[in-house]
């Protein structure tokens, strides 16, 4: 067995002095397997998102242990180790100095000035996102698909599609266990069953299509969303016409789906619906969807590589549709945040606030969680980047959280009420300004998720892209309702007269079903006679089992005179 050559040992003090003096010649180790190390690094960059997050957590733990062991008493000494560099190739130096807030006065377009100052109907708001042209394209492709599949044209018209969407929205308000329950004898629901027959409704559902399968090229089929790509592009163009708000949040959304026949289904642990389709989305503080992108996973089995990574590229792609140089603010969680991303956004005149994983910040030495815990809830520590005026704050509440910002810092510090388990009462906790700003403007995606979950009917299908289609319909309803509320505030309409989400969707459903239609049935030859004729009373008899159960059918005396029931 070959002998192992032991190197020279160094103390912690020697290491600190060498790092601060910039002399690391005694610590350089020549490696014979440098090429293999680079290959291993390239292989590790292809791991999945879940494995990457686990590795980053392990890296954070190791980094925290090293920082704790090498921490010094001086807080003003910057850490200038050569471990990592920023996107421009220069070292990041973090100093504990006062953060100077830049000029961030919003100069973007005002949605009040761009509105027509005229309140429209729910159908008109809905048609801003689902236009007649979009439905016409679906009608043409659906008729072609029915001819290719069954040999006969389904004869789908624009009104058929509008009625189908209106029935779907009405099903979301009055929900039943299944679609066919609305037509069954015992549970028949007239506002839906009287619109069209059950077989016709099933024919429409099975014929809906968005592309011509015979004309699609192999290059187009490399897109995993080619089945519904024309509809998604048209819907995204309608969403981009919304006047964006000053504060925008970027996060992921999930469309519930557990089917097997889809190459883009994702699993996200900890979500209310862990299985489904992942959508990167950008919304305003009101929850209105402004831009989105459906996540497809790896391209041809290999994840795409870039300087910012998947998360950073997603933020840049969604923020690229914002006007530059007008001081828009973007908020994101620790999956997206990194220092190179903040630098790229600053070049576009867009500011950013977000939580960050400590392992992603080069050379940042903040107080550890144990130290902040000893100081008590509300304690925090901060540093400022000397190169780009980026502020990093670590705040301890129940746990420590680290945030990065390009326009907000720790001051002014206010107090917020927090529940204390030991005393079973509320206590005041110090809260930095950056935490207050993040909590106030970050919840746009969560608000949109809560809106889409209400009054949405779960319609099962064997075709995976139909789940995305119905989800875009619900998002169109939510966006239309939010724009309606925005116009109501602009026109100063009383709150009591503003339609809530349920009434708005009910009126929209009735408009889609009843506009440009005539009443079903055979018309009367004599209008006068039909007007004077008395409608026949319908007696809803109870089921036979209820009639003959001998309970509650015997007469009883009462003080008031009335009819027997």
Overview of the structural elements:
This protein has about 575 residues and is an alpha+beta fold. The chain has 2 domains: about 5-105 and about 335-440, no CATH class; about 110-265 and about 280-290 and about 440-520, no CATH class. It is built from 20 helices and 12 strands. It has helices spanning about 10-20, 35-45, 50-70, 110-115, 120-125, 130-150, 160-175, 190-195, 200-205, 220, 230-240, 310-320, 340-345, 370-375, 435-440, 445-455, 465-490, 500-515, 525-530, 545; strands spanning about 95, 245-255, 265, 275-285, 290-295, 330, 350-355, 380-385, 390-395, 400-405, 415-420, 425-430. The strands form 2 sheets. Strands 1, 2, 3, 4, 5, 6, 7, 8, 9 and 10 form a 10-stranded mixed beta sheet that branches. Helix 12 (about 310-320) packs parallel to helix 13. The termini are far apart. Residues about 1-5 and about 25-90 have low confidence and may be disordered.
Number of strands: 12
Indicate the overall shape.
Answer: globular
Mean pLDDT over all positions: 80
Helix content: 25-40%
Give a short summary of the structure.
The protein is an alpha+beta fold and 565 residues long. It is built from 20 helices and 12 strands.
Question: What's the arrangement of secondary structure elements?
Answer:
Layout: H1 12-21, H2 34-44, H3 49-69, E1 94-95, H4 111-114, H5 122-126, H6 132-150, H7 158-173, H8 190-193, H9 198-207, H10 218-221, H11 229-240, E2 247-256, E3 265-267, E4 275-284, E5 289-294, H12 309-319, E6 328-332, H13 339-347, E7 350-355, H14 369-375, E8 380-385, E9 391-396, E10 400-405, E11 414-420, E12 425-431, H15 433-441, H16 444-453, H17 465-490, H18 501-514, H19 527-532, H20 544-547
Parallel strand pairs: 2-6, 6-7
Antiparallel strand pairs: 1-8, 2-4, 3-4, 4-5, 7-10, 8-9, 9-10, 11-12
């Amino acid at each position: 067995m070959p002998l192992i050559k032991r190197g020279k040992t160094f103390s912690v003090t020697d290491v600190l002095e060498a790092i601060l003096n910039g002399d690391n010649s005694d610590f350089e180790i020549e490696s014979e397997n440098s090429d293999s190390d680079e290959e291993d690094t390239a292989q590790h960059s292809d791991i999945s998102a879940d494995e990457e997050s686990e590795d980053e957590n392990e890296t954070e733990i190791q980094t925290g242990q090293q920082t704790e062991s090498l921490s010094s008493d001086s807080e003003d000494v910057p850490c200038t180790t050569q471990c990592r560099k920023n996107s421009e190739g220069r070292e990041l130096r973090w100093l504990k100095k006062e953060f100077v807030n830049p000029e961030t006065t919003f100069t973007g377009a005002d949605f009040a000035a761009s509105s027509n100052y005229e309140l429209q109907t729910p159908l008109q708001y809905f048609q801003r996102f689902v236009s007649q042209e979009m439905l016409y394209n679906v009608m043409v492709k659906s008729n072609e698909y029915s001819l290719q599949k069954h040999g006969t044209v389904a004869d789908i018209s624009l009104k058929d599609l509008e009625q189908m969407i209106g029935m779907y929205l009405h099903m979301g308000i009055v929900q039943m266990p299944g679609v066919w329950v609305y037509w069954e004898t015992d549970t028949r629901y007239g506002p839906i069953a009287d619109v069209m027959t059950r077989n016709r409704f099933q024919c429409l559902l099975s014929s809906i299509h968005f592309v011509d399968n015979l004309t699609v090229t192999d290059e187009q089929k490399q897109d995993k969303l080619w089945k519904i790509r024309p509809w998604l592009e048209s819907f995204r163009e309608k969403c981009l016409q919304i006047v964006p708000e000053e504060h925008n949040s970027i996060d992921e959304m999930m469309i519930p789906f557990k089917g097997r026949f889809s190459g883009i289904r994702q699993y996200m642990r900890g979500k209310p619906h862990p299985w489904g389709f992942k959508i990167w989305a950008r919304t305003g503080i009101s929850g209105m969807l402004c831009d989105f992108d459906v996540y497809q996973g790896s391209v041809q089995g290999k994840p795409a590589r870039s300087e910012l990574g998947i998360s950073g590229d997603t933020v840049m792609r969604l923020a690229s549709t914002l006007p530059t140089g007008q001081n828009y603010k973007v908020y994101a969680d620790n999956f997206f945040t990194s220092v190179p991303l903040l630098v790229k956004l600053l070049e576009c005149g867009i500011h950013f606030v977000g939580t960050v994983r400590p392992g992603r910040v080069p050379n940042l030495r903040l107080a550890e969680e144990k130290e902040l815990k000893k100081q008590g809830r509300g304690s925090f520590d901060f540093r400022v980047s000397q190169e780009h005026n980026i502020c990093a704050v670590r705040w301890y509440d129940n746990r420590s959280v680290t945030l990065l910002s390009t326009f907000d810092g720790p001051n002014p510090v206010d107090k917020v009420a927090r529940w204390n388990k030991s005393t079973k009462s509320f206590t005041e906790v110090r809260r930095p300004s950056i935490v207050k700003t993040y909590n106030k403007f970050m919840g746009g995606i969560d608000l949109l998720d809560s809106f889409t979950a209400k009054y949405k009917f779960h319609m099962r299908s064997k075709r995976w892209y139909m789940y995305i289609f119905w989800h875009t319909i619900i998002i169109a309803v939510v966006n239309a309702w939010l724009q309606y509320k925005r116009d109501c505030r602009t026109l100063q309409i009383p709150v009591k007269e503003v339609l809530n989400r349920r009434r708005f969707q009910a009126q929209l459903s009735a408009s889609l079903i009843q506009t440009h239609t005539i009443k079903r049935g055979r018309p009367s030859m004599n209008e006068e006679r039909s007007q004077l004729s008395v409608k026949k009373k319908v007696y809803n008899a109870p089921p036979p089992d209820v009639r003959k159960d001998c309970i509650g059918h015997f007469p009883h005396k009462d003080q008031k005179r009335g009819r027997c029931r």
